[in-house]
Amino acid sequence: MIPKILVVDDEKDVELLFRQRFRSELKTQKILLHFAFSGEDALRYLQSQTANDVLMVLSDINMPGMNGLQLAEEVKSKFPQLKLIMVSAYGDDNNRHEAEKKGVDDFVTKPVEFDVLKSRMNRLLNLE
Q: Which residue intervals of the chain are DSSP H helices?
């Protein structure tokens, strides 16, 4: 099974960036990426999938409507098996503490160092 990763960010250019930075992994089918542009869209997508279809969520924190911390709380309560990494420009102690309280598995700050992100993803998904 190819690991499916859900990327959640209200900025649509994130999709192009992630597709470029994960080009090799996508081409060799090491992972599949799906994108949602709001917390609400992310939850709808996750609810439409079969159990264990999506293995990880990468989410921004600051989004209109449901923010990433609210999404994290919903994801961890409804899909506790999912690994969750927050990807945010706001890596202050308060956000990190809140993310930790909500069960987030890791926290990466923007601008994203993709080598670091890939390493953390591989560790959490046991792909190394």
A: 13-21, 23-27, 39-48, 68-78, 93-101, 114-124
